[in-house]
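Aim 2 progress update. The chain analyzed this quarter is reproduced below.
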Amino acid sequence: MTQLTTEDHLRTAIPLAEGGVPVLPLRAGKVPFRNCPDCMGGVCGGRPNMKTVGACQCPRVCHGWAAATTDRAVITSAAWAPMWRTAAAVAYHPGGAGLTVVDLDDADAVAWARTALPATRTVPTTRGEHWIYRGTMRSVNAVRPGVDIKSSMAYVRYLGPGTGTMTALSDAVRTLAVKESHPARPSHVVAVTTLAGGGECRHRTPVYLERGIAMAEQRITEASSQVHTTVYRTFLVVLSVHGRCGCLTDAHVGRLFTAAQAKGESLRHCADAWTNARAALGM
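Predicted structure tokens:
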């Protein structure tokens, strides 16, 4: 196999990024480059083991899927250049592009998908196929033999544009995650969804909740740097205090999202940060 050059990788990565698909380099073995010393152990504000929300300001690819970017200046920067020189492939973050990839790892899985899932754009892989849908959901591995779902908090090796017309994410795909991973928990395809409830918080008073939301809004609004980190940590604090009581409403969450968007965060990032904070707390 011919060793690809930096120019080869950039000829793939830059058009993807310009089309709104966040990209990152992969080293041999289809894995991201390891965390740099400054980011080990989550000291930069991100979480280890690729569970961060992309909060770190380090110019290196430190957090797997969350390092994926559409920023050409970052992709072509001197900090990324050494990684492109030794990269084995280009990867992308499907959830960041509003996509879900059903990774079919062998012929049996492909045969199953052809009878069980709606037709969509397909990309051949070494052993099977990637089926790409419009829409995002949480990523789940091994939903059935030879089938993984890659969307939020995941990366996928880019293997070409594929063939066929891309269709919308269907309940047939979403149901796979519900069946095989956590049956007792709802599948939060739209990460803005709050917990059921709406009554008075049993731990604190409604006034305390209102003050807490106002303080959270202020904390986000006053962030002068590391906005990603601030948004995620603020969501984490709000959920840790009130998330299990049923007292949070869509209106409360909307206020937090509005504050974050006023600082330049996208709605998709807000939704991902909320979902990740819930996951961190085991909700």
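The first helix runs from residue 6 to 18. The radius of gyration is 20 Å. These observations will guide the mutagenesis experiments scheduled for the next reporting period.
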